Amino acid sequence: MNSWLSSPETLTFLISMLPISELRGALPYGLSQGLSPWKAYSIAVAGNIVPVLPLLLGLKKISALAQRWTKGEKLLHWTLGRAEKRQDLVKKYGFGGLIVLVAIPFPVTGAWTGTLVSFLLSIETKYAFLAICIGVSLAGIIVLLASLGVIGLVGFRI
After folding, report:
1. Pick from 82, 81, 76, 64: which is nearest to 20 by CA?
2. CA 87, CA 144: separation in Å to the nearest integer?
């Protein structure tokens, strides 16, 4: 494998782009590979944000293409169904709700889910992108603090 592809920075960035791990998996990985907290945070947040705008701009076309094939339509309905379960927070609190949905580092939350919920609710792209970026940045802080053990030191229980 090429050295740039196997570097901790590159792998942290790529892991944070994945919908299953996002920065929740990437940040602890980067720290475990010896990256400084600031570097791991910056790379993981950047990698988590990279897919958001293309998805926000392309979900209508992706949705239309997926509906042409039975398996694509099933995958689309399954994916959107999972996102629908999370849209109440955003319906109730709007922009702030979208930030919270993305910022809480629990399963089936994060940038990818926030993007899908934004699509389902037809939130204007510029507002959705800003809320998701803020949410990702906050999620990064939470995951970084948890990874460094600060949350445990302060006495919070997760």
Report:
1. 82
2. 26
